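Structure request: XS domain-containing protein, Triticum turgidum subsp. durum.
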Amino acid sequence: MSDDYDSDASEKSFETRKMNKWFKISVDQIHERQSHCPACQNGPGAIAWFKGLESLVRHARTMGSRRVKLHRELAALLEEEISHRGSSVVQPGEHFGKWNGLTESTDRQIVWPPMVIVMNTRLEKGEDDKWLGMGNQELLEYFSTYAVTKARHAYGPVGHRGMSVLIFESSAVGYIEAERLDKRFVDQRTHRDNYMQKHRALFLPGGIRQLYGFLATKEDMEDFNKHHQGKSRLKYEMRSHNEMVVAPMKKMSEDNQQLTYVKNKGVKTEQRSKVVQGTLDVVAQKLRETEEENIFVRRKAKEKHSEYEEEMKSQEKFFLDQIENIHKALEDKEREFERLLQEERAKARQCDVDSGTTENRRLRKEQVQRFMYCQVKDVQEFEAEADQLIKAHEEKKVQLKKEYAAKEVELEKEFDAAFTGLMEKHKPNTFQASNSS
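Returned structure:
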C-alpha cells in the first residue's frame, strides 16, 4: 500500500508542524478540546470533529486505509506527550485500576442471502399501458464483473416498478462481493442517499438511464415484495453479521495465518493476519482477472481449432471435387465407348447379305458372323480386364486408407507422448506439511 507520508519529505515536515500544534495545549484541555485530525488530507478526519484526545487517538490508531504511517506516528506522539504532562487518555473523574470494555455488541442483522438493490431499471410503457423494464440477463451483464448469481425485478399493478435486486452467493465471500458493489455505488455517487435526493439525475446525456444501487435492508426487501405473494415473493431471512460473515472470515484468516506461519516461522500471528486481510481483495481481483484471461485463451484456442477444421474441410472438398471430375470424365468415356460399339454392330447388321451371287452372299454372311463373333469376344475380354482393373484399383484405395489411418494413429501417439512429457515436466511438487511447531 502506498503512503503519502513516505512519498514526500517536505509534506512530512508540514504535517509534523501541524501535529506539533496539539502539544501546546494544557492538561485541562486534553479531554475537552475539539479539533480535526491533522494527519488526514482530503479524508474523513479532515472535516470530522474529535472531542478530546481519546477519540482522536482511537481514530489515529485504527485508521487503516489512508496515510497509515502518519496516523500511527500521530497516535504515538500524542500518547507520549500526554504521558509527559502527567495525564492519559482517561477522562477526568475515572478511577484508575478499573477497566471498561465494550458495552454493546457490534453485531447487526443483515439480509441473507446477500443482495444489492438496483434502482431506475424501468424503461418504457408497453402496448397494454404497463411499464416495461430491464431483463434478468441484461441486468446480470451490466454487473458481470461481480460474482452475482441471480437477478430479480419488482412488479406491481402497473408493471415494472423500476426496482431490481442482484442476489449473491450465500457465503461470506458473497457478502464481501455485495459490499464491494455497494462501495462502488458510493464511490461514483449513485448510492441510496444520492437516489433519495430530490434533484437526482435519473438520465445521463443522450437519454441513458443512470442506475443507482445499495446493499439491501429488511425495509428494502419488504418494499420489493410489496406486490408479490406466495411463490412470487423473493425469499430472504435476517441473519447475524458476525455469524454469517465475521466468523467465516475469521476462519479464513486463521487458515491463512497457519499457512503463513509454515512459510515464515519468525513472523507474528497478528502481523500475518493483517497482511492476509489487506491483500484479500487484491488476490480476489487477480483471481477474477486470471479466470477471465483463461476464458479468453480457451476461446481463442477454440476459434483456431474451428479455423483448422474449416481449412481441412475445404482441402477435403477440393480433392473430392477433383476425384468427382475424374469419375465423370471416365463415365463419359464409357458412354462413348458403348456408343461406338453399338454403332459398329448396327453397321454389321445393316449389311446387305441377300444380293449378288450365292458365293458373294455366303462370303458377306461369313464376314458379318466373324465380325460379330470377334466383337463379342473382345467385349468379354474387355469386361474381364475391366473387372481386374477395378478390383486392383479398389485394393490400392483400401491399402492407401490403411496407410493413412496408421500414420494418423502414429501421429496421435506422438502427440500423446509429447503432451505427457510436458505434463511430467510441469508436474506440481508434492506438498509435505512440516511436523515442527
